[in-house]
Design brief:
heterodimer; A: alpha/beta; six-stranded parallel β-sheet; rod-shaped; B: alpha+beta; five-stranded antiparallel β-sheet; 16 helices; 44% helix; 27% strand
Chain lengths: 221, 463
């Protein structure tokens, strides 16, 4: 494999130095440029057409962050592959970094020994994620499915046990007071559950709740 | 000079009488005055006699003759009249004092005379003035005052300020009981409140409540309750102070405190994440490089490298954990929902329980204080359910209901008695409460031992 020309973008000198010395182990990995800010990174890319991998931190101190910088790089320099390297393991950061064009994501402090492999993988245009990053990504996708709105009747599974209980009692024509006494909660709480149900089930009023309960076999006519 | 011929007996009675008397003729000239009279006014008998009555007695604010005799002659059937109009006596030295007159009409030598008995009513007048002053104070007090019958527990009276404030007339108020006005009380709660007063254990009790006006609007109040006894009658005096402004000030102080605290937390969190975390990461990188440089495996102290790597790894994780607990950056960057997702995922990964997060209608942007508060409250409540409540399943719901954001955290744990924990300030509830107060929100707990717990936090979107 031909040598990979790398630019490191991180606002911490010690991290850049650390990565540089770690990568010096492998003669195929050449750190050609380094930058401490978005602005510096973009101008160095303009000057150095050899670079094919950018190792990008998310927090960059002053100026644009790593996500916005990645987006600009992806738009301007189509041949460059970006590997994100960050302390952030939250789904929101990971997803946004991927949306911005990064194809790899590893965690600082967790997957540093993966760095060499990650850069080589990304250099070939393939995805590389640390184990916990891929787990987080899986969770994000499964959640997305559950949260998709618009369904006229949301599946029953989204109601809590207590809500189903209350919905049944509402459908059986119990008043807030009666439900409160049955379930040992205050009428105010029942009322707030009732309003939540109306919101969740996307109905207009209590009649809509009853209709929903009948449609889903929660009560008998 | 006119001289009325009276007997010595009458003269003696006249002189020795303890009352102050004088006799005037039909022209309202004084013909006779007893000793009490001369003492009262400071004149000698000679100075008084033949003078007009108005030298001694005038009607307040009027200069002309008081025409006592004319009045009596016009109504001869009333032989004795108590003059009730505002009369003042004038002492020789210029002092004036309120007097009351009793008049008896009589005839002698076919001429009308009036026997005038004069009462100095300075003392009564003063007492009456004080009564009316007290009444004025009662009615015009800036504190709203309610008087409640201790037996029937109905309102007897209320001052002008009180009635104006709540919008009821006195008649309407008298149909109500003290707990009818208090949004957070019923008969039982009120009876419990007044128990120490009735038993004489306390002289005064003070508590906060929420008053509801006739138009159903509400305002926070501080209530001072005292019990009075007068001639076997017991009444409560309820002094009510509107603490809307005080509450607002408290809320602002609370808000400022929390804001300051959160800013400091954010600063430290950032410092930990950006400085300490990066330094540790750099150390880790160098350690990996160093390990690699030991190219002869025989001489490489593998176990020391492994130990160091593990130590660094754990330290970095711990730094992240502390930083995130102080202030999760995702909260600021991506908002409450993302932060809660992450929080719940973390619980699901690390503890043996299921945390479900449901979010509805939350596309609205919260301000930073609301965002942080709701996050902290959710965090605290999930922690509680997990640690103390021994829950297996926790439902976290974040819903926008009209102009409010509702956060509900329900669990199937062991439950507790909210009344006890609330007063003990247990479960970090105080902390939650102050955040809710700072946001002008409401907080409700439904829990019973063995029945699980349901927390509800409601916060108005616009403040």
């Amino acid at each position: 494999m031909s040598a990979v020309k790398i630019m490191i973008v991180d606002d911490h000198q010690m991290i850049r130095d650390g990565i540089k010395s770690f990568l010096s182990i492998d003669p195929n990995l050449i750190v050609a440029e380094e930058a401490a800010s978005s602005e510096e990174a973009l101008s160095k890319l303009e000057q150095n057409a050899d670079i094919n991998v950018v190792v990008m931190d998310i927090n960059l101190g002053k100026g644009e962050d790593g996500i916005k910088t990645s987006k600009t790089i992806t738009e301007k320099f189509k041949h460059i592959n970006i590997l994100a390297i960050s302390m952030h393991d939250e789904g929101a950061y990971i997803l946004n970094m991927l949306k911005a064009g990064a194809i790899g994501y590893i965690l600082k402090g967790q997957g540093m020994d993966e760095l060499v492999e990650a850069i080589k993988t990304v250099a070939m245009g393939e995805n590389y994620f640390s184990k916990s990053v891929s787990e987080t990504l899986m969770k994000q996708f499964t959640r997305k499915k559950n949260d998709s709105p618009s369904a006229k009747y949301k599946p029953l599974i989204q109601l809590t046990k207590r809500e189903v209980e209350i919905l049944k009692l509402i459908a059986d024509e119990h008043t807030n007071q009666e439900i409160a006494e049955k379930l040992f909660i205050s009428p105010r709480t029942v009322d707030s559950h009732r309003r939540t149900l109306i919101q969740k089930l996307n109905v207009k009023n209590t009649a809509g709740l009853v209709r929903y309960a009948i449609n889903h076999g929660l009560t008998e006519l | 000079m006119e001289r009325l011929q009276i007997t010595n007996v009458l003269q003696g009675y006249f002189e020795s009488s303890a009352t102050t008397m004088l006799l005037v003729n039909h022209q309202e000239k004084i013909v006779l005055a007893n000793q009490n009279c001369t003492e009262m006014f400071g004149y000698s008998e000679a100075e008084i006699c033949d003078q007009a009555l108005e030298m001694l007695i005038t009607q307040k604010g009027k200069k002309h003759n008081i025409q006592l005799i004319t009045r009596i002659s016009e109504a001869p059937q009333s032989r004795s009249v108590l003059a009730t109009y505002d009369l003042v006596g004038k002492h020789k030295n210029g002092e004036v004092f309120p007097v009351e007159l009793s008049l008896s009409f009589m005839e002698a030598d076919n001429k009308p005379y009036a026997l005038v008995i004069i009462n100095d009513i300075s003392k009564q007048k003063q007492a009456a003035d004080e009564d009316s002053l007290l009444s004025k104070i009662f009615h015009e007090s800036l504190n709203d005052i309610y008087i409640i019958d201790a037996h029937s527990l109905r309102f007897i009276n209320a001052n002008t300020g009180a009635l104006g404030k709540i919008g009821y007339s006195l008649e309407e108020l008298q149909q109500l009981t003290p707990w009818d006005l208090k949004l957070d009380q019923n008969r039982l709660v009120f009876l419990q409140r007044i128990e120490p007063l009735l038993e004489g254990k306390e002289k005064k009790i003070i508590f906060e409540s929420v008053f509801q006006r006739k138009d159903r609007s509400t305002f926070p109040v501080e209530i001072h309750l005292q019990l009075f006894e007068h001639e076997n009658r017991h009444v409560f005096m309820e002094t009510v102070i509107d603490i809307t402004e005080k509450k607002k000030a408290e809320r602002n102080i609370m808000k400022a405190l929390i804001e300051g605290q959160e800013m400091e937390r954010e600063r430290i969190a950032k410092e930990l994440h950006d400085e300490l975390g990066q330094a540790l990461t750099a150390m880790q990188l160098n350690l990996h490089t160093l390990e690699f440089l030991f190219d002869t495996p025989a001489r490489k102290p593998t176990d020391i490298f492994d130990k160091l790597k593990l130590l660094l790894h754990n330290t970095i994780q711990e730094t992240k954990f502390i930083s995130r607990n102080l202030m999760p950056s995702v909260l600021k960057e991506y908002g409450l929902v993302k932060a809660l997702e992450y929080l719940c995922d973390n619980f699901n990964d690390t503890v043996h329980l299921q945390v479900h997060l449901q979010v509805y209608n939350m596309e609205n942007k919260l301000d930073s204080l609301q965002r942080v508060a709701l996050y902290r409250i959710a965090q605290e409540l999930i922690n509680n359910a997990c640690k103390h409540g021994k829950a297996k399943e926790i439902n976290v719901q974040l819903i926008r209901n009209g102009k409010n954001v509702v956060l509900r955290v329900e669990d199937d744990g062991i439950g507790f008695n909210p009344a006890v924990s609330r007063t003990n300030g247990g479960f970090g509830l105080k902390n939650i409460e102050s955040r809710v107060i700072a946001l002008d929100g409401k907080f409700n707990i439904d829990s019973h031992p063995g029945q699980g717990t349901s927390f509800l936090v409601k916060i108005p979107l616009k403040r």
